[in-house]
Amino acid sequence: MMIALHARRSATSIARFAAVYPQRSLTLVLTGTDLYRDIRTDEEAQRSLALAGCLVVLQAEGLRELPAEYAAKAMVIYQSARSLLPGRHSSRYFDLALVGHQRPEKDPLTAVRALLRLPPELPLRLFHIGAALDTRLAAEVASLADGDRRYHWLGPLSQAATRQRLKCCRLLLLPSLMEGGANVLIEAVTSGVPVLGSDIAGNRGMLGADYPGWFPVGDDAALAQLILSAMSDPAYYATLSRRCAERVSLFSPENECAAVCAIPRMTR
After folding, report:
1. What is the spatial distance between Cα 151 and Cα 7, in angstroms, rounded to a whole number?
2. Contact at 8 Å (CB) between 218 and 107?
């Protein structure tokens, strides 16, 4: 069998496998760039959809992006993360986490602009984890945050170190323009950390369209208001925490393993 990640990037391998082993199972896992960009316009990505015997999306709303003729061979597999006990929160600061390499799709500027909108006397810290993959964007982020001691860019960290930092924060900020099903959201939820995220399909498909922590894409003012509400309104923060806790079982390693093990039974 073959399991391919990315309709466009794996197009050559998918086509070769389908030609050499036409009766064998070929599964294609679709990412955010697949669902919300490539399969709409790229011929190779569209060919990959046709050749695959099984299509996997990583969150429920991803099914809506597929052409109708492929719905019958599509399934949802939520990624997983091992649950961690919540970390010890700072008694002095209300810590925020922003996790993702610096590239346009992750939109770190919205998170930093939201931080800068909040009164400087508020005891906030924003820990930004991720490599500067887009050097121009990273320079823009650094320039924007220059002089604000609440912003801390930690650079790229290991997964273990990232999770340890994340679980000690009060909120995860997820301002992405595009997501197929963010693994860091799962890592936050399974560590007891609620999420404030952009109102995009890839996020809604993870926590539900009616989750009260969504804000319009790129709207730093709205994100700033949600951060302020989470800081000042215990009932709102408790609601975010409860709604995230209700989804934890979706992201268990056992559920993901069972779903992955079912893939070989779905052939072309």
Report:
1. 37
2. yes
Contacts 24+ apart (CB under 8 A), 212-215: 212/236, 212/239, 212/240, 212/243, 213/240, 213/243
- Largest pairwise CA distance in the chain: 65
The Cα 57–Cα 162 span in angstroms is 25
CATH architecture of the domain formed by 94-250: 3-Layer(aba) Sandwich (3.40)
Q: How many alpha carbons lie under 13 Å from residue 36 in its C-beta half-sphere?
A: 18
Kindly state the tokens that stand for 203.
């996020």
In the prediction, which pLDDT does 259 show? 92
Give me the phi and psi of 5, to 5 degrees please: -110, 125
Q: Left (φ > 0), alpha (ψ -120 to 50) or beta: where does 124 sit?
A: beta
Q: Is 83 helix (H, G, I), strand (E, B) or coil?
A: coil
- In the chain, where does DSSP find H-type helix? 11-20, 32-33, 39-41, 43-51, 108-117, 135-145, 159-166, 183-189, 201-207, 220-232, 234-245, 253-261
**pLDDT digits over 147-198, tens only?**
899 999 999 999 999 999 999 999 999 999 999 899 999 999 999 999 999 9
pLDDT in tens, 105-143: 999 999 999 999 999 999 999 999 999 999 999 999 999
Query: What are the strands of the beta sheet with 171-174, ordered from one edge?
Result: 151-155, 124-129, 94-99, 171-174, 195-198, 214-215
What's the pLDDT at 268?
A: 55
- Hey, where are the domains in the chain? 2-79+252-265, 94-250
Query: Is the predicted pLDDT of residue 40 greater than 60, yes or no?
Result: yes
Q: Are 188 and 162 in contact (CB under 8 A)?
A: no
Residue whose C-alpha is closest to residue 177's, from 202, 151, 213: 202
The whole-number pLDDT of residue 265 equals 61
